[in-house]
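Request: How about a record?
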Amino acid sequence: MIAPSVGPEGVWILADQLHPQQSALASLSTLSPDRVPVILIESHRWASSRNHHQQKLVLVWSAMRHFAQELQQRGYPVTYVEADSYAEPLQTWAKQHQLQQIRLMQPADIPVRDEIEKLRSTLPCPLLILENNHFLWTADQFIEWASGRKRLLLEDFYREGRRRFRILMDGPKPLGGRWNYDRENRHPPKPGMRYPRPLTFSPDAITQAVIAKVRQHYGHHFGSLEGFGWAVTRAQALQVLDHFIHERLPHFGPWQDAMQAGEDFLFHSLLSPYLNLGLLTPHEVIAAVEQAYHRGGIPLPSAEGFIRQILGWREYMRGFYEYQMPNGYAQNNFFGHQRPLPEFFWTGKTDMACLQHTLDQIRRHGYAHHIQRLMVLSNFALISGIQPQAVEAWFQDVFIDSYDWVMQPNVIGMGLFADGGMLSTKPYAASAQYIRKMSDYCRHCRYNPSEKVGKQACPINTLYWDFLLRQRSLLAPLGRMKWVLIHLDRMEPELKAQIQAQAAAWWDPLQSALDEQSPSHLQSV
């Protein structure tokens, strides 16, 4: 622990650092709370910098205001400011308390770090940045693990994490004798299955005030405010965790990849917004799931499948972000895709049932689960040839759990393969057959998921095969693409020509519509 300096010190808390044991607060825990001034700044410039989903603005600001209230109740002298930017409130606060130093937990997002570095010279006292303790791995630990490796695979990292943190282990071996249970966790939706309702919370006076503010000043932003029920305090987030473990986790594993029309949440945890705000930590979430498994009633495939998402996927994405972002990772465009984002990504007006359902769900909640994000949204963008940076910007705008560290590797790397294979060994490109297998969307769609060309052909099929034809030279060196390219090469030349013609015809009307619009609402930043 870093010892306090001789003079008074204050703590600056960012919007995604809302945990009482976050490192900046924890570093001054030996002092009485009344001797530690705290500031939180509600930044209007941040709110205006993107077309943030309206529910995300409410969630972030309500959670900040509730956290400030909780700190006041613990005895901290809290300053809460609504301002355009950070500089002036920090200067006024530091001078008011005659601070000798400001402590801040390192921001998770690199653009925020860059912004804060520019502030240093304007502050009346030094700024001390402390390690971000809202992840299991530190950035340096991941970089040390990754350096010198010939491959950076999630599976390798996940197994190392299981060993390092002794999670679901039996001595040196994984519990059950296997590292993962993916084969057991790929069930399509089951007809007639009933899903538990998510735990939601009625907006209190603080949240209602934030809703009114967002409606007044940011009502033009994407999404709907109707039915806002997200947790906005740590106590509520802990209730959501408990509800997930008892009501949803037992069935989470087998159906974690399923998609079903009219069901927005299935058995998913809905914990990512709270983890990314700091209301929950990955340590306590993993520990709660592991303890529930050992108590009985939670199948190992469900416990392992969920822990993989946090210990594996979430930690890997953050580590990969720290490892690659300084190298210009965000600008990668392996396939050279340049098409703009279609208007229906904002309006949801499309005849493709899989996209229509997913986009409507995002408009209402700011949420879609990982398979909808990867195999519906990202898959469509990839095979259509949409510019990766436009897709990533849209993902940042519309999701309630979006942050730079989450979206850059997920969209640029995993979703669109724009990094050329740094993060995954093959593109997650798929025809409509995947969606037909893992969902019931195709039953409600006017298109036929078995046809590649013709009036009833699913556009995802047409665009998928067109993508393979357009990008064959770049796909050929990827070993895992071998068999699908063999199938492509056996395709009759006439069918290939039909596919390419229909793909071009499908896109051209979209392009014409885009050209007639003012582009302002398509610009995310």
Remarks:
- The longest helix spans residues 300-324.
- The first strand starts at residue 9 and ends at 13.
- Residues 330-522 form a domain with the DNA Cyclobutane Dipyrimidine Photolyase, subunit A; domain 3 fold (CATH 1.10.579.10).
- The CA atoms of residues 359 and 519 lie 20 Å apart.
